[in-house]
From TrEMBL:
Highest classification ranks of the organism: Bacteria, Pseudomonadati, Pseudomonadota, Alphaproteobacteria, Sphingomonadales
InterPro entries, per database record: Aminotrans_3, Aminotrans_3_PPA_site, PyrdxlP-dep_Trfase, PyrdxlP-dep_Trfase_major, PyrdxlP-dep_Trfase_small
Entry keyword Transferase: yes
Organism, scientific name: Sphingobium agri
Name of protein: Aspartate aminotransferase family protein
Pfam families: Aminotran_3 (PF00202)
């Protein structure tokens, strides 16, 4: 039965990404507190949070330094804006800090509040930039099927998932989608990863030529696709894609919202996969989710014409009330300091062999089709018959059932359809990682017993 809290929630709360018709029967799990990698619900049940909530609570759920940074900031300067001629010391320090950790030389940092807003801002900057350099016809932005870039009108258009488009009249004009780089699913029989990457880069070039290179402005990519199913790029993919982009003067945007700050085993996914973006968007791990904040970093090539043009019309006409919010900035700054001082990237690297050994042990299991990922982000894709690549009947709701069983075992994992995601807080210890997989094994055993 829904708890008292859950019943009150059902009465008043219009939920995101929820089957609202089914919701009244089920109600939400009401989480009341957290402790390291664990969270607790209002009935006192404890769960190991194996997805960092929404891929974001990288430092877990009870970091005292972050709590103090937030409360100190609230008592210092709770708010000031960053519109024309205004700034605050915290945003200044954070902007400089971000430039110092960027994976490629970046020139300036723009602040927003969410990954969606960061990507939306990037779209406007791309259009503004091409107008400023006298190429206003360069308007089209290419993203990929299965990408997830957010939910605002432009970022949902960039997302390549049907749930983001259907019934919202999206995508908007000038946003196109090309191949999803999922090797296991889309490679032709006998095709190597390298050949698959060549084919996708060739397809991209053909698409740019068909659209007209003079009309193509930018290409958006997550280093590892997150919500589209944890899909790392096939070997040589970004090298080949970037050659095509360079040939037709198409900007590259790296959406590091999930990958940033150690998730891939390096500070940025761009480094892991050899991406050299002109624009980089970041959120989630930027504040370890302790406050809403996102950022767009742009290189000098992009920034200089934007700045010049803003002189002509008198302003760069974009920005949010909470761009550079001092409390969010203080928490983000402290987060970045902790990543550095605690060598969180080194910690991730030290855990990777254990994480991947445990994950790989599920290859060949009765209902496991593919195990994939990188660093501390991974997915196990469930199939009814992996050998023949037969998916479960959607009515079976295999992924959702596994998640429900996980809860009974004190484990929170996430299902994207029948793909089960692991994205634990980066501070997880070796013992907690063992505990995660002990709980997952019990979950999987019950799933196997009951699904047939
Ligand atoms: N980009 C990526 C890669 C994401 O995974 C997400 C959210 O999951 C977003 C953008 C959107 O971020 P937000 O939900 O903060 O708007």
């Amino acid at each position: 039965d829904p708890s008292e809290n859950a019943a009150a929630d059902i009465a008043a709360h219009f939920h995101s990404f929820t089957n609202l018709a089914a919701h009244p029967e089920v109600g939400p799990l009401v989480i009341t507190k957290g402790d390291g990698v664990f969270v607790e619900d209002d009935k006192g049940n404890r769960y190991l949070e194996a997805v960092s909530a929404l891929w974001c609570a990288s430092l877990g759920f009870s970091n005292e330094r972050l709590a103090k940074a937030g409360s100190d900031a609230l008592r210092g300067l709770p708010y000031y804006h960053t519109f024309t001629g205004r700034s605050n010391p915290t945003v200044i320090e954070l902007a400089n800090k971000l430039l110092s950790v960027a994976p490629v030389p970046m020139s300036k940092v723009f602040f927003a509040n969410s990954g969606s807003e960061a990507n939306d801002s990037a779209v406007k900057m791309i259009w503004y930039y091409h107008n400023a350099i006298g190429k206003p016809e360069k308007k089209k932005i290419i993203a990929r099927l299965n990408a997830y870039h957010g939910v605002t009108v432009a970022s949902a258009s960039l997302s390549g998932l049907v749930t983001n488009h259907r019934d919202f009249d999206l995508p908007i004009a000038n946003i196109l989608h090309v191949d999803c780089p999922h090797y296991f699913r889309y490679a032709e029989p006998g095709e190597s990863e390298e050949d698959f990457a060549t084919r996708l880069a060739d397809n991209l070039e053909k698409r740019i030529l068909a659209e007209g290179p003079d009309t193509v402005a930018a290409f958006f990519a997550e280093p590892v696709m997150g919500a589209g199913g944890v899909i790392p790029p096939p070997a040589t993919y970004f090298e080949k894609v970037q050659k095509v982009l360079a040939k037709y003067d198409v900007l590259l945007v790296a959406d590091e919202v999930v990958c940033g700050y150690g998730r891939t085993g390096e500070m940025f996914g761009s480094t892991t996969f050899g991406m050299k973006p002109d624009i980089l968007t970041t959120a989630k791990g930027l504040s370890s989710a302790y406050a809403p904040i996102s950022a767009v970093m742009v290189n000098e090539k992009v920034y200089a014409p934007i700045a010049r043009n803003s002189g002509t019309i008198g302003t760069f006409g974009h920005g949010f009330t909470y761009s550079g919010h001092p409390v969010s900035c203080a928490i983000a700054l402290e987060t970045l300091k902790i990543y550095e001082e605690d060598n969180v990237v080194g910690h991730v690297q030290s855990l990777m062999p254990q994480f991947w050994k445990a994950l790989r042990s599920y290859e060949g299991r009765k209902y496991v089709g593919e195990v994939r990922g990188v660093g501390l982000v991974a997915a196990i894709e469930l199939y009814a018959d992996p050998e023949n690549r037969t998916s479960f009947d959607p009515a079976v709701k295999a992924g959702a059932r596994l998640v429900e069983i996980g809860l009974t075992q004190g484990l929170i994992v996430r299902a994207l359809g029948d793909t089960i995601v692991f994205c634990p807080p980066l501070i997880i210890t070796a013992e907690e990682l063992d505990e995660l997989f002990a709980r997952f094994e019990r979950t999987m055993a019950i799933f196997e017993e009951t699904i047939g």
